[in-house]
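COMPLEX REQUEST
Ligand: zinc ion
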Amino acid sequence: MNSSEIQRLIQLLSRLPGLGPRSGRRAALYLLQKKESHMAPLIEAINNAFQTIQTCQSCFNLDSHKHCSICLDPKRDQHTICIVESVSDLWAMERSNTYRGLYFVLGGNLSAIQGIGPDQLNLGALVQKLQDQDFQEAIFALSATLDGQTTMHYVRERIAPYVKNISSLAHGVPVGGELDYLDDGTLTTAMTHRYKVA
Ligand SMILES: [Zn+2]
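STATUS: Structure written out below.
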């Protein structure tokens, strides 16, 4: 039997995305056997992230400032906005290095099954942002799932009065595929072949 401290550590690690009880046990043991070299820096990093990381008030990305480094970067194209479902999709777009405009994180997809309606998304903030700033193009980078496409058409209706050109990533994307799982080349192709959403 493990001590309650070890049990608690395993339990918390097991709940992390992608881990389960088995990986949780392995990670816990690894950290306990490498307290100085791995556990201490991890504690410090988690603590720092906990203290400093917040949601960007402008685009809903995560960063250590009220406005994220992408929103504050004057070298980025201030007239193009890419609408993504989640921060993980924003990260995927940034990794692919194909896009130099601004972003907006919707915070999910509409989903009848999961009971996610328009009020659960950051839609009001998106409309406000498009009213306040002068965007020439909005690019949807939502998943090719049914929910993703439903969301795109709903949001398009809402933002159409405020932005002239609305497009979507081409879907060389497998159905049900999420951006985070795409390799950079596929995302680059999807961006290059984006199509107009009428
Ligand atoms: Zn931002």
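REMARKS: The domain at 4-52 is CATH 1.10.8.420 (Helicase, Ruva Protein; domain 3). The pocket of zinc ion is lined by residues 56, 58-59, 61, 67-68, 70-71 (CB under 6 Å).
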